[in-house]
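Subject: Interface between my chains keeps coming out wrong

I've been trying for a while to get a sensible model of this assembly. When I model each chain on its own everything looks fine, but I need the whole thing in one frame so I can look at the contacts. Pasting all components below, labels as-is. Any help appreciated, I'm running out of ideas.
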Amino acid sequence: MTAPFVLLVDDEVPFVETMTKRLEKREVNVETAFSGQEALDALDKSRDIDVVILDVKMPGMDGIETLQKIKSSHPLIEVVMLTAHATVETAIDGMKLGAFDYLMKPCDMKQLMAKIEEATHKKRKQEEKIREARVQEVISKRGF
Amino acid sequence: MNDEKQLANPYYQSLNRKIILTIISVSIIPMILVSSTIYLQFRSSYHEKVYDHLRELVGKHKDDIDNFLRERLTDIRIMARSFGYKSLSNESFLQERLAAHQQEYGPYFVDLGVINSKGEQIAYAGPFKLGKAQYSDAKWFNEVLRDKYVISDVFLGLRGLPHFIVAVRNSTDDQTWILRATIDFVAFNTLVENMRLGQTGFAFILNKEGKPQTGPITKPSLSTLPNKNIYNEFLSNSSSNPKEIHITVKPDSANHESIYVTAGLKNGSWLLVYQQRVADAFADLDKTFKITSIIMLLGPLAVIIMAFTLSRMIVKRIAISDEEKQLMNETVVEAGRLASVGELAAGVAHEINNPVAIMVEEAGWLGDLLEDGCKDENIPEFNRAIKQIKTQGKRCKEITQKLLSFARKTDDTVQDIEINELLEELVALSAQRAKYSLVEITTNFEKNLPLLKLSLSELQQVFLNLINNALDAMEVSGGSLKLATRQKEKYIIVEICDTGEGIPEANLNRIFDPFFTTKSVGKGSGLGLSICYGIIDKMQGKIEVQSTVGKGTTFNVFLPISSEDLSGT
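Reply #2:
Try treating it as a single job with all components included. I did that and got this:
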């Protein structure tokens, strides 16, 4: 499996920077965004993103709203929510809206990596299925 | 002991006074009204009764005396007609008649005399030696010649003793003669003297000139003796209508208020006067008045004592319940404070979590680097990470310190407060929450405001609450929150103006009610504004609110400046 491509979204710049370094060291491709809108823009630009790591609490467009928009425009992309204790409820709301999972912030790197891999795996499997379905469709149309 | 101290509080003292006054006025005024009405009614009817009684008494005696005089006159008229001049001019026969009369009717006649038309006494029977007395100059003699009958006034006459006579003129056997009898003065006096009532009531008779015709047996003091000036009026009154009985009240010669009852006798030529001092006549009334007065004195006294005890009990009870209420209020305020702190904490938790997350990541990154071994090229990265951890640590410290200043227990000790400083702190504390709600906080503080002498934690609570509410109102839409302070007369006015959803007019006068909330269940206790109101009210300030739905809400908090500070600026 090729390295997962992650979009990291958080309004805390130092957090994003350090996390990027750590993820890159673990051979994850990282794209960053500092607000919900930036995240949506980044997704529109780069089609290879597998997983979005999304902070729930952000000024302006918050995590939940961003999640809804991501899910509606890029349904295959998996979203892992990052949340503080006080906003666990919001994270659960996020799961209901189709988030892959949530993690308490600050999070354990091993756990995070595991989630990223799981999510990437799931996303790619879905894509595989879709591709196969398309192939099947083409084959049946061609009449093989 | 604590109670005593509380009761000394001016509020309770004035309450105490009010209760006492109410009880006293409500019970004593009707009591006075009722008693005085009853007393006055009783007095007037008693007066009437006494006057009626006296009128009756005097009337009866007047009749008795008139009858007595008429009877005596009749006696000698019958005597004269029955026996004639011849028999009566015989002294021994006359003596016999006198004895017979005295035996038959009582010792009313002292003596009898037969007098011829020239005034010479022909015959005499009686205890005095008046043999050939000459009466031609006597007043009564002239009167009897003119009027046929006479009852004379009292005079001393030949015998030198006060007496009066009845005489009748007869014309028989071709000559005019007169039969005369002397009335026993003592017996006659008894008729009048018997009229004695109480201690000062006595009666007497006056003639037309105002000379007394009877004298009290028990020697009355000079002061009570008939005074001519006083009686003249009666004399002139009574002659107009001799049948009438008059009652007047005027001071007697010794200046005691006295009742005078007068009635005409002898067709108005004599006057029966009954005199009694008012105090004596109304002695019973006086007694009643004294009893009433004692009751009127003791009753209110009892009422006053009761009023004092009762009001003290009531006020004590009120003081206790006030204290309990105060305690309860404190509990509610404390609960409200914790609620607002909790609300704040939710916002702050995320704020703390961010730097913590950064620090953990930096630490993780350092760990990652160390796994590769100590390479010199990594040293700047180490330094950067350590600096970042320090920065984020400081951030945490600031937040926790801000939060700690609220977590302290409420104390309402009064201290000097710089209101602008307090608001700045609160703004800093709320900044993170505001940022997530896209609310811009602007401040416009008037400089050099006087210090407030109020409780810091209470003020913090009030403004934290108001700011939280404003941020709640703008949570969805964002907006701007303006805080302004200014001084106006003896208040510092803090204006908190949001551009949130506004409060519907129907709710506007309910927002300060406890447990009134429009937030969903579990989100708001409905205590926040009610507590704010309570705190500000306690400080003798006030809160005003204006709101337009869709445009926003403005709270104006008026904080009183203590008078000494006011004079200082």
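Reply #3:
Confirming on my end. Residues 216-225 of chain B have pLDDT under 50 and may be disordered.
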